[in-house]
Amino acid sequence: MDDIAKHLGVSKKTLYKEVDSKESLIKAVIEGYIQDEKTFVDGIFANSENAVDEIFQMSAYLIEFLKQVKPSTQYELRKYYPKLASLIDEGHMKYIRSVMEHNLRRGIREKLYRSDLNSTLIITFYMNNTRWLSEQTEHAPVDVYRAYINYHLLGIMNEQGLAIYRAYLKKLEYA
Is residue 126 situated within a structural domain? Predict the structure, then answer.
């Protein structure tokens, strides 16, 4: 709390007038992030060209987030604030599951993803791997996520989706 007060240019006493405890501050930050993410994703849903574009935009958002968060944050949250960690595990992961369901349905409807996918299994694989990605410490989270999202997309796309995917990769090379 000392560091936060110093960063904000206020006293700890002033900070505690706004928040009851460190835990309530962390909860507010988590809830604020989740709400901002939902607003951002809603914008992606409304403005993306197709399901592949949707995944690329969401991935770019997550990669920027991963660049800002220390890998130890998740571990420390689970260790010192298990109730708040469960807020992420239960509420946020439920939301991510719905986002992935939306994307799979859209990709199949747009004929960019394979029609023979077992959506329930694909989403379960994605969710379990997402949890693992947040806990692994051997590699930089951004590198791991980039590799994983490519792996995920290559497993679900058909030829038409693959053509769009390759075009996005080319765009990224020249950006």
Answer: yes
39 vs 6, 12, 42, 66, 155, CA distance in Å?
30, 32, 5, 18, 28
Residue 5 lies in a domain: no
Q: Which CA distances in Å does 16 have to 21, 23, 100, 105, 154?
A: 7, 12, 39, 46, 49
Whether 62 and 174 have beta carbons less than 8 Å apart is answered as no
Q: pLDDT tens-digit profile of 83-130?
A: 888 877 777 788 889 999 999 999 999 999 999 999 999 999 988 887
**Does 84 reside within a domain?**
yes
How many structural domains are present in the chain?
1
Looking at the domain assignment, is residue 10 inside a domain? no
